[in-house]
Design goal:
eight-stranded mixed beta sheet
Length: about 375
């Protein structure tokens, strides 16, 4: 015999957990399925910290979504009592005229966001831990900060459970198919039916949505946590989160957080892999390469490496997300391809997926994230 629900959500990472919480809060009978354990570290939703920022260099269309995400993160904090979001301010650093700098400025100006454009000297005076020289400038935005991703997922799962959702962990091999006006999902434990389905499978999207043949590329990303040699320069009350576009590549980093040191990672150039075959260990040479770049631009931060980690990006050809209804099954909502910059949006993506699952459309403007742009709509 199969169990029946209003909505089944496949994937209980950042996006799926948020969708389950929003759907359950709307009175839907929800089943959440996760192939691994609660708060696992095998996908794209772990790693202690994630940047959130308003002056969105990737495209100004993201700004209304991220502003809604801020409000929803604060609502989630109030509902659960968990501390999820810390404001530190943020810097987008690059050469004058670079894509990083010009993209951030375009979003800030279009949406009337507060910002300052600092040259290298001004940036050093404001943040003495920086050494940018004369070749780089920085867009400073006061509202940027960081999220605690594991706590954010936990908070959404708490809300979903409180609202009556059934959450199943360590239940893998979720295979779905249309079944009349609904769907049926089969796992190693059983069979479940629902009127609607939400699929948020992270780097496993290629397998779970194999019928769509999505143009996705899975990339291995490496991070280090370094113990700063001058810790007073990099505390979260004195130093911001930042993005860095320099001749060595594209990077991101955080102030020194308790027990974590300074987190630093490269945003591109990782190995192309699969979620099954990804190398989880970080080689000493990889860590040293990151430490060398960190020491060049944040010289007081590049002390001893405290820990390393890997995560996975799932990239689309244009680096924009995919959030849409399935072109053949309009009772199936999908979210994937977050291309290494999606986590900050998880709270609002959950709201969007709940809209799509219950109303077949969203109150938010997500047209630029549709399958149609990829020739799949």
């Amino acid at each position: 015999m199969s169990e029946s629900y209003d909505v089944i959500v496949i994937g209980m990472g950042g996006m799926g957990s948020a969708a389950a919480a929003h759907l359950a809060a709307r009175g839907q009978r929800v089943l959440g399925l996760e192939q691994f354990g609660r708060l696992h570290k095998l996908g794209s939703s772990h790693g202690h910290s994630r940047i959130i920022r308003e002056a969105y260099l990737e495209a100004p269309e993201y700004v209304p979504l991220v502003q809604r995400a801020y409000r929803l993160w604060r609502d989630l904090e109030a509902e659960t009592g968990l501390e999820l979001l810390t404001i530190t301010g943020g810097l987008t650093i690059g050469a004058p005229g670079s894509q990083f700098v010009e993209g951030a400025l375009a979003s800030a100006r279009l949406h009337d966001l507060p910002y300052e454009l600092l040259d290298g000297r001004q940036a050093h005076e404001r943040f003495p831990g920086l050494a940018l020289g004369d070749e780089l400038v920085a867009v400073h935005e006061p509202n940027a900060g960081y999220l605690r991703p594991e706590d954010c997922i936990d908070a959404h799962l708490i809300v979903a459970s409180r609202q009556g959702a059934d959450l199943h962990f360590d239940e893998g091999a979720a295979v779905w198919q249309a079944d009349g006006d609904g769907v049926v999902v089969r796992t190693g434990r059983g069979e479940y039916r629902s009127e609607r389905l939400v699929i948020a499978p992270g780097p496993w999207a290629g397998q779970v949505l194999a019928d769509l043949n999505l143009p996705l590329e899975v990339e291995r990303i490496v991070n280090i946590h370094a113990e700063p040699a001058q810790p007073d320069l990099y505390t979260a009350d004195r130093f911001p989160v930042y993005l860095l576009e320099v001749p060595e590549g594209e990077y991101y980093g955080f102030p020194a957080l308790p027990g974590q040191g300074v987190k630093f990672g490269r945003h591109e150039g990782g190995e192309i892999t699969t979620p099954q075959a990804v190398r989880r260990e970080v080689e000493p040479a990889e860590a040293q390469a990151l430490l060398d770049v960190l020491g060049r631009y944040l010289p007081g931060a590049a002390g001893k490496v405290m820990l390393t980690l890997t995560c996975i990006y799932t990239n689309t050809p244009d680096a924009n997300f995919i959030i849409d209804l399935h072109p053949e099954h309009r009772n199936v909502a999908i979210a994937c391809g977050f291309s290494g910059h999606g986590y900050k949006f998880a709270s609002v993506v959950g709201e969007v997926l709940a809209d799509l699952a219950t109303e077949s459309q969203s109150r938010h403007d997500i047209g630029f994230l549709s399958l149609a742009r990829l020739g799949l709509g």
